[in-house]
Specification:
transmembrane helix, cell membrane, transport, DctQ, transmembrane
């Protein structure tokens, strides 16, 4: 029993078969964000060394780490959708026969598609304010710190992009579940 669990933990199931080519692309790109998390850890170690050993702190480390980790967490939502690994309450779902599960899968995916589309629309409202000045000139929102990078604006644009792709991924899943034979 325990050996089976450990063995399954070492297997990488990859993208869900119903996620299509988009799911495989999303799954493959996940490594970039994992590397970003490792880079964040390395930056923090470097910052600690610079600050406490050399007494030469940086102005960029904190905001860079926040940007990298925020990007990874935003991408993580899309990643788990492509792998069909998102959290769900399976109290009822597990007791359903396969034929009825198919209808639940269709309903869940369609609902998530609609929800993602509405979240994307709401994110667009935030992006509009973060990439254009009131006069209509393009200017990414900045952090306001001494370094003042445009990371807040970039994260908002990235969130919008991810929500749009997530909407498409849920649409792909919905269509795939509709085509699936019971």
């Amino acid at each position: 029993m325990t050996e089976d669990i450990v063995e399954r933990l070492h297997e990488d199931p990859g993208a869900d078969v119903h996620a299509g080519a988009l799911g495989r692309i999303i799954n493959a790109a996940g490594i970039l964000f994992a590397i970003g998390l490792l880079a964040s850890a390395a930056i923090l170690v470097i910052e600690i060394f610079l600050r406490y050993v050399l007494n030469a702190p940086t102005i960029w480390a904190h905001e860079t780490v926040i940007f990298l980790t925020a990007s990874a967490f935003v991408y993580g939502g899309l990643y788990v959708v492509a792998r069909n690994a998102h959290i769900r309450v399976v109290l009822i779902y597990d007791f359903l026969p396969k034929r009825l599960r198919r209808y639940f899968d269709i309903g869940i995916s369609a609902t998530c598609c609609l929800s993602s589309a509405m979240f994307a629309w709401a994110a667009w409202k935030g992006v509009q304010r973060s990439i254009w000045t009131p006069a209509g000139d393009f200017r990414l929102e900045t952090s306001g710190s001494a370094w003042n990078p445009p990371t807040p604006g970039l994260i908002k644009v990235f969130l919008l992009f991810i929500l749009i792709v997530m909407t498409v991924q849920f649409l792909v899943l919905t269509i795939s579940y509709i085509k699936k034979r019971a």
